[in-house]
Amino acid sequence: MVKPPSIIFSKLPVELILEIMDYLQTRDAISVLRTCQAMRTIVEGYLYKHIPIRVHARHRLSGVVRTLSKRPDLARRVITWDGYLFPVLREASSYPEEVPKLFFKRWWPWQREAPNVVDLTPTPFNYMTNLKSITIYYFGWLQSGSYPQVRPTLDAMSLTTLIIAGCSFSWPDQHPGYERELAMILQSQPLLERLELQSGKWDMEEWLSPTDLPHLHSLVAREEEARRLIPGRPITSLTLLEVDRVLDDNAWRELAASSTYITSLTFDVIQQDLMSPFLHSTAKYMEALEIICTNSLCMAHLGNVYENFPTFKRLRSLTVTLRRCWHNDAMLNDESLADLKTGVQTGSPSVKYVKLAIDGFATNI
Fold first, then answer.
1. What residues contact 341, with CB distance under 8 A and at least 6 apart?
2. In a designed cystine with 266, which of 33, 103, 239, 360 is the match (CB 3.0 to 4.6 A)?
3. What value does the mean pLDDT take over residues 48-60?
4. Burial of 301 from C-beta contacts in 10 A (0-12 / 13-18 / 19+)
């Protein structure tokens, strides 16, 4: 029996190697990187395309920033920066008087010791000319002394996704000038396609003109911000955060005033009894909806979804996400799934796909 010829992985086309990398976890990609110099050259740039720096992994930020500051070639490969955008970091053992002025003690006062961190100049963001997506923890960054140095670089970028994450106890109304500053950042990004305002109350109507953000098609915001940003813009995907009241007709007209049709809606309601009136109003004012996702629902109130489910003309997919708790787990059974499907399809026969999920564990029916 003749054995097939062996294939040397490093001899594969670069495009195919990068395609294979998409199916590997980060640790496996790092193992590939360590095999030889040829693989290091290919995979190293791939690993730096998307950089997540989560709250629980702040210790990684220092090393990443140091590497990118020393390697502009890698910084130019970064497409997504998801996490802290503080232009830090170097050891601050010789700068003890500066540490208390930084964000850490202000945001995490229960920590006994502040990290050894100070602003780094220059920052790697000056090299990230190909960056397309940024998540900014806005308030802390704007308070950083390096913000004026990074701002011109940010203005020169052609971002397609901008996520503004703040602190729940640090609202824009407590920091005059933040809204205007954010509006100026948005005006400098005419190619922006997705905007997320995850916290705070942003009133930028005074500074944004109707011609700003002409390509914005996906918006994540609270109701008040969405009403200001949607009219006249081509929003097709809308996520409403923390709906806490019954919206009046004027509010719905503004939410539906996109220059095109909104086809995807995701929302979470604070009070479960708001679910049914919210769905009926949605069916009245957003007739082109094809996809609806609800979040943070309690199983005991699932009937608010499917009982007297309104008629959507084009709706084809409904996802109901439940809170994870013992009460929801105990009540989740085949009968409840069947009731949901029957009630939804009775009101809207066009619905072909129904999913019931509990914190990522989904059941399709």
1. 354, 365
2. 239
3. 68
4. middle
pLDDT tens track for 171-205? 445 555 677 888 888 999 999 999 998 876 777 77
Please name which of 342, 343, 337 lies closest in space to residue 356, comparing C-alpha atoms.
Answer: 337
Looking at residue 61, its amino acid is L
- The set of residues, in sequence order, having a beta carbon less than 8 Å from that of 31 and lying 6+ positions away, is none
Overall pTM > 0.90: no
* Measured distance CA(151)–CA(176) in Å, rounded: 18
pLDDT digits (tens, 9 = 90+) for 96-151: 444 434 434 333 433 434 343 334 445 677 788 888 988 776 655 565 555 666 67
* Rounded Cα distance, 300 and 318, in Å: 18
Report the DSSP pairing between strands 133-137 and 218-222: unpaired
Residue 77, amino acid? R
What is the SS3 assignment for 243? Answer: strand
Q: How far apart are CA 344 and CA 307, in angstroms?
A: 8
- The tokens for 236 are 């097709």
Which of helix, strand or coil describes residue 19?
helix
Residue 233 CB-half CA count within 13 A? 29
Q: By CB neighbour count within 10 A (0-12 exposed, 13-18 middle, 19+ buried), where does 143 fall?
A: middle
Helix (H) or strand (E) segment spanning residue 304: helix 303-306
Burial of 54 (0-12, 13-18, 19+ CB in 10 A): exposed
Distances (CA, A) of 69 to 9, 85, 126, 168, 232: 31, 14, 9, 31, 41
**Both tokens assigned to 335:** 């009968």
